[in-house]
Amino acid sequence: MLGLMRGYINGVDAVNRRVGRIAMYGIFALMGVLLWSSISKTFFVPTLWTLEMAQFVMVGYYVLGGPYSIQLGSNVRMDLLYGDWSIERKAWFDLLTVCFLIFYLCVLLYGAVSSTAYSLGYWKSEPFSFLFGVITGSEEIGTMERSNSAWRPYLWPIKVVMILGFFLMLLQCVSELFKDVLRLKGEPV
What's the stated role of this polypeptide (predicted)? Predict the structure, then answer.
């Protein structure tokens, strides 16, 4: 069992490290979009797409970088109390709180899947089976949801990024749960 846990931890951490290191460069894409927005507003005709594209890039940056942030332990903690605790006490506390986070991420993932199915034109009550059917080719896409802005981009691509980010974050939280279990057993992590 410990071998499976270590394998899971190593696999998920490796994937999230790679995705997080790539997502870090999203800040440069965001800076480029905002720089173009400033230049076009100052010297040319203002563009319609820059604000919304900046929002999409920021969502991707944040959601895909979140699992890597959890892996590094750079998320916000209440160090006033937590910093002075023993490793065992921290592991117990993290074990408890990561369970709440896993539940929350499951709710977010369900909402993201439902929202993505809606953005692809599905209005019934089985979004998971619909998206699986779209991937396998057994379902047809309906009228796709578009933004209400003047640019009117399709919303499904950013919603797919959110599904991927929430799923990777869920996997990373399970990895952190396994790390806490290993710490409580006295095993090296």
Answer: Part of the tripartite ATP-independent periplasmic (TRAP) transport system.
